[in-house]
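**Tokenised fold:**
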Amino acid sequence: MTGPAGPVLVTGAAGGRQGSTGRHVVDLLLARGLAVRALVRVDDDRAAALRVAGAEVVVGDLREIADLGPALRGVRRAFLTYPVTHGLVDATGAFAVAAREAGLERVVAVSQLAADPAAGTPHMRQHWVAERVLDRFEVGAVHLRAAVFFENLAVVAAAAGFRELALPLGPPDTVLPLVAAEDVARVAAGVLADPGPVEPVLRLTGQVLTVREVAEAFTAASGHEVGYVDVAPEAWRAVADDLYRDGRAVEHLSALWAMFREIGAVHELYRVSEEIERIGGRPPRQLAAHLRDAQARV
């Protein structure tokens, strides 16, 4: 394997509220001097910004096999991400077939930290299925099993005007494994650019915090008190239905918070990953610094 011989295809390149890993990967690969082909659903202002940045933009649906053949033409490496919504396995299946036909040698795919056939949420279980699909098609899959993105917590806090963090997580000493989407993207870019062999599964956690410590990080970044409020699961679902307007996202997040609440404080996966610095090139981002930087950009 000699590294990218043609453009690197990046899916999810326009970005979104769930972390924008695709957009981060585009910028990181371009900064390395690599050619990037960005796959977007809509040719809008975000697509125009990608062109200005130096990416080749193609428009298509990740679930549509007819769109993927042209998108992958001449590509040997690709970044695959899919939002927390319905269609993950359909999209992965179509992508795996097209990638195999195109002769891809490496596909770096975003998965979830506890992806497993017995995982605590339906979407995690689907990620495990998606991993197996990519493996079966022998496209050099590397699975980035990421912890909870900082951005997921920021969406919840923003809905309350950054005055409280209302989640059904039980006591404030409940522990969360967290990571910045940008750190996941840095690891992805490193793996995509690396000509050598890479572990097929990389678990990515940048910080392990109690819910109390999460609220303290929001307080430090906001300059005013941001308290944690333990809400009932039913009340959370009612708010989440309006906030996300996506049944799969609400189903996944509701089950995720319940899983953390039941685990409490100790789990074998709750550890900071050395791979973030080793492959991504810098120590993991910390939540308070991430939040301050995000507010400065607003």
Q: What stands out?
A: The mean pLDDT is 94. The longest strand covers residues 106-112. Residues 119 and 125 are 6 Å apart (CA to CA). The domain at 8-147+181-203+269-282 is CATH 3.40.50.720 (Rossmann fold).
